Amino acid sequence: MSDQTQTDTGLPGKFMQQMVSLDYRVLASPLQQRFDAGMRAGRITGHKCPVCSRVYVPPKGYCPLDTVATTEEHEVDVGDEGIVTSFTVLTPIQYRGQRERQPYALASLLLDGASSTVGQQRIAGPIEDVRTGMRVRAAWKPEAERTAEVSAMAQWGIGKAIEHWEPTGDPDAARDHYAEHIL
Amino acid sequence: MRDVAVVAFAQSPSRPEVETTETQMLFPIITEAIEQSGIERRDIGFWVSGSCDYLAGAPFAFVSNLEATGAWPPIPESHVEMDGAWALYEAYTRLQHGDVDTALVFCSGLSSRSDLRETLAVQLDPYYLMPLWPDHISLAALQARAFLDHNGATERDMAEVAARSLRSAKDNPNAQVSGDHTAEELLGADYLVEPLRPHDCPPVSDAAAAVVLAVGDRARAVCSRPAWIRGIDTRTDPHSPGVRDLAVSPSTRLAGEKAGVHSGPVEVAELAAPFTHQELIVREALGLGDDVEINPSGGALAANPIMVSGLIRIGEAFRQINERGRNRVIAHATSGPCLQQNLVCVLEGE
After folding, report:
1. Domain containing A105: what range?
2. Does B126 contact A18 at a Cβ distance shorter than 8 Å?
3. Which residue has the higher pLDDT, A18 or B116?
4. Is residue A4 part of a domain?
5. Does the structural domain B4-115+204-226 have CATH classification 3.40.47.10?
6. Where in chain B is the domain with CATH 3.40.47.10?
7. Chain A residues with CB inside 8 Å of B21's CB?
8. Is A154 inside a domain boundary?
9. Contact assignment for A30 to B68 by CB distance below 8 Å
10. pLDDT at A14
C-alpha cells in the first residue's frame, strides 16, 4: 500500500490521491504444477472427461458439465497447433508501466484435440491477416526460458512457455468446426 | 409463510494455504451436500453462493466457482458478496415464492492468500477511514477496550472464552486450532494489540461449505430430522465504527428479537464471533444465559474461513438438531468491522 497527496490543482479545495495495492500469495495446485511441468517440456496437456469425452485445456480437475472429478489418469496431450476462434486487436494506451507500443492481436485458440479454448494468446504477423478459422502453430520459447511461472489462478491461461502463435499457412478450418467456440 | 428446513450440510476442513483452486475446493463439498440430501442435482430449484473476490485476489472468481455446481443445462442462480449465511437468507426468501421447493447454498473463502490486515481495510469507508489503513485486529482491540470499560468484564473473562472454544474444538475435525489450555496459561502471553492477546483473535482459514434447504413435506421426505428455520433476520449498524457504541451490538439484539430468539428456551447457540470479546457482546445482545451451551464446535475462534464462518454456524446448528436430538438452537453470523452486520437464525426440531 502507498499513498501520495496532490494539492496544487488550481481549484479550491484539496485533492487526495489514494493508491491502493494488495499483495496475494497464490499457491500452485498440484494440478497446475503438473501442467506447468508439461509446458516446460513442450507438452500441452488436458483432462479428458470419462463421461462426455470432452478435453479441457488446461485441466480443471473436474468436468463442469458432468460434475465428475478428473485426475492424472485422465490426462491427454493435445496439439500445439490450433484454430483462432475469436480475436481482438489491442491498441496500447501509454499509461505508466505500459510496455507495448504497437497494436497487437490476442486470440482464443481451439487446439487440436481440445474441447475448450485457451484465451489471450498472442498472434504473430500482420494483424490485418488475423481471422477466425485461421490455423496457427506455437512458437515455443527456448527450453531454458520457459520459466517455472505457474499458469495462474485464472483457468484460461496456459503460462509463458510459448512466445506467440504463428500462422501455419494451411487452409482455414471450416466454420462448423469451431462455431460453438466463438465468443 | 412456507416452512423451510436445513436437510443437509457439508464443509471442508478449515485450513490455511489450501493448495487447490477455489472451485476445486467447492466441488466435492457441493457434491457431498447433494448426496447427503438425497435430492437429485437436477431437482435443486435455486442455487445461491457467498464469496469475496478480494479474498481470492481474482476478479470474477465467483463465476469460476459456478463450475462446481454443474450449471448445464442452465440453473437459476444468484451470488452475494457476503458470508454464506446471507446467501442462505436469500434462498429462504426465494423459497417463499412458492414455485420451487429446494435450494442449495454454498460459500467459499480463501482467507490466507492475502494479508487480512490490509485486505479487510478495503471494506471500510474509502474517504475518511480506509486511507488510515486501520487493520481489523486494531479495530477489534478498540472494541474490546470499549466493551471492557462498559461491561466490567475482564481480560480473564475473554481468556475463558478462548479456553472453552479451544477445548470444544477438540471434538471437531474441521476446526483448525484446538487444545486444553487454562485461562491462566493464556493470560501469560504478550498482547498482540492491547487488550487482545493471540488467543483473543481467530486463526486464518480457508474453507468451503454447502447447505441444502427444502420445504415442508419435501424436507420430511429426504431428512430423518430436519432443522426448521423458525425465524431468520439480518440487521446492520452504521458503517463507520466511529459513530457506533462499539461496546454493544444493537443490530444483533434487534435481529435476535425479530428472529424470535426469546419465544422459547435456547439449548445451544453457535455464534460467529471471531474475537473473544465479540462472543461476550453477542451473548449479551441475544440475552443468552449461562444455561445455554455456546459453540460446541469451537466457533470462529477455532476456525475462521471468512465468507464461510456464518454458514458453518447454521450447519453446526443443523447437526445439533439432526444428530444430537436438540430441539431449539440458534445460529449467528457476522460481517464487517467490529460486528457491523449481524444475522440470527432460530432452528428447531419437529
Report:
1. 30-181
2. yes
3. B116
4. no
5. yes
6. 4-115+204-226, 132-199+228-348
7. 29, 31, 60-61, 153, 155
8. yes
9. no
10. 75
Q: Does A7 fall in a domain?
A: no
Instruction: Return the residue in A2, A32, A54, A60 with the most chain B beta carbons within 10 A, the one to mutate for interface testing.
Output: A60
Residues of chain B with C-beta less than 8 angstroms from the C-beta of A24: 57, 113-114
What's the pLDDT band for B58 if we cut at 50, 70, 90? confident
Q: What is the pLDDT of residues A110-147, one digit of tens each?
A: 999 999 999 889 999 999 999 999 999 999 999 888 87
How many domains in chain A? Answer: 1
Q: Is the pLDDT confidence value at A3 over 50?
A: no
Calpha distance B174→B289 (Å, rounded): 27
Q: What is the pTM of this model?
A: 0.93
A30 at the B interface (CB within 8 A)? Answer: yes
Q: Give me the interface pTM, i.e. the ipTM.
A: 0.89
d(CA B61, CA B148): 40
- φ and ψ at residue B47, rounded to 5 degrees: -120, 140
Per the document, the length of chain B is 350
Domain B132-199+228-348 has CATH 3.40.47.10: yes
More confident residue, A17 or B190: B190
B118 and A62 within 8 Å at the Cβ level: the answer is no
State whether A29 and B20 contact (CB < 8 Å): yes
- Listed by number, the residues of chain B in 77-116 with a beta carbon closer than 8 Å to a beta carbon of chain A are 113-115
Report the alpha-carbon distance of residue A54 to residue A47 in Å, rounded: 8
Direct distance between the N- and C-terminal alpha carbons of chain B, in angstroms, rounded to an integer: 16
* Averaged pLDDT, B224-231: 98
On whether any CB of chain B is under 8 Å from the CB of A154, the answer is yes
Q: Per DSSP, what are the bridge partners of residue A82?
A: A111, A136
Query: Nearest to residue B67, comparing CAs of A154, A67, A49?
Result: A67
Minimum CA–CA partner of A2 in chain B: B131
Closest C-alpha among B11, B53, B52, B44 to residue B28: B11
Residues of chain A with pLDDT > 90: what percent? 67
**In the numeric block, which cell numbers belong to residue B27?**
466441488
Residue B327 at interface with chain A, using a CB cutoff of 8 Å: no
Mean pLDDT over B106-110 rounds to 97
pLDDT number for residue A183: 75
| A22 falls within a domain | no
> How large is the average pLDDT for residues A84-88?
96
CA gap A80, A175 in Å, rounded: 20
**Mean pLDDT over all residues of chain B?**
97
